[in-house]
Automatic annotation (TrEMBL):
It is found in: Cell outer membrane. Pfam families: Gly-zipper_Omp, OmpA. InterPro entries: Bact_OuterMem_StrucFunc, Gly-zipper, OMP_bac, OmpA-like, OmpA-like_sf. Keywords: Cell outer membrane, Membrane. It comes from Mucilaginibacter boryungensis. The keyword Cell division does not apply. Its main location: membrane. It comes from the Bacteria. The lineage of its organism: Bacteria, Pseudomonadati, Bacteroidota, Sphingobacteriia, Sphingobacteriales. Residues 98-215 form the OmpA-like domain. This is OmpA family protein.
Length: 225
């Protein structure tokens, strides 16, 4: 089902971007077409694919894209930061996606079952992540909490929100500007594995952190800096 949603989302992107570029498309260079896709459709398409694919963090990364040559500049900077995070935050799964980075923590690394207090090892991981975020200030960060389907919808949503907020609070206490951080709780509604199995439920209990370029980085990238 998840694969089908992603395929549908990808097809929809093709339709939307084709529609955007169709009028007078022959007058655009490849770079201009890329910039049009990123800047013109990024927010709408990013939000759509994020919803369709069942991944809010992915939607945030795609929605923040600018495309074209500027996007390549941003991507190069994100490559460097992703490599830094992989080296310094051993408890995280780091994925370079488009013009951003998705950092995923299994909730078992961060929290005890049904709790929101951070474990000692979690604090160490987040302190290292905070250093990277502080050293790369031209980014915005979205923290998304997720649960499995055990318990009520209301409880799971509340737990996911409080866990995302706990991660944000610790990052702020570790030196990250709180104005750069936003949180969301998705409860059980964005699974990445089968909740019918213990392993699947374990994978679904997670916190995802999307790192995207802020307006200053985008402006500098467009100027070729």
């Amino acid at each position: 089902m998840k694969t089908l949603r992603i395929k549908i989302a990808a097809l929809s992107i093709a339709v939307v971007t084709t529609g955007l570029l169709a009028p007078g498309c022959n007058s655009f260079t490849k770079t201009q077409k890329g910039a049009a896709i990123g800047a013109g459709a990024g927010g709408v398409v990013g939000a759509f694919i994020g919803k369709a694919a069942g991944n809010t963090a992915l939607g945030a990364v795609i929605g923040g894209a600018v495309g074209g040559t500027a996007g390549a500049v941003i991507g190069h900077k994100m490559d460097k930061q992703a490599a830094e995070i992989k080296q310094t935050v051993p408890g995280a799964t780091v994925v370079r996606q488009g013009e951003g980075i998705i950092v995923k923590f299994d909730s078992g690394i961060l929290f005890d079952v049904d709790k929101t207090g951070l474990k000692p090892a979690a604090k160490s991981n987040l302190e290292n992540l905070a250093k990277s975020l502080a050293n790369n200030p031209q980014t915005n960060i979205l923290i998304v909490g997720h649960t499995d389907n055990t318990g009520t919808d209301t409880h799971n949503m509340d737990l996911s929100i409080r866990r995302a907020e706990a991660v944000k609070s610790y990052l702020v206490s570790s030196g990250v500007d709180g104005a750069r951080l936003n949180t969301q709780g998705k409860g059980e509604i964005e699974p990445i594995a089968d909740n019918a199995t213990a392993d699947g439920r374990s994978q679904n209990r997670r916190v995802e952190i999307a790192i995207v370029a802020n307006e200053q980085m985008k402006a500098e990238a467009k100027q070729g800096q």
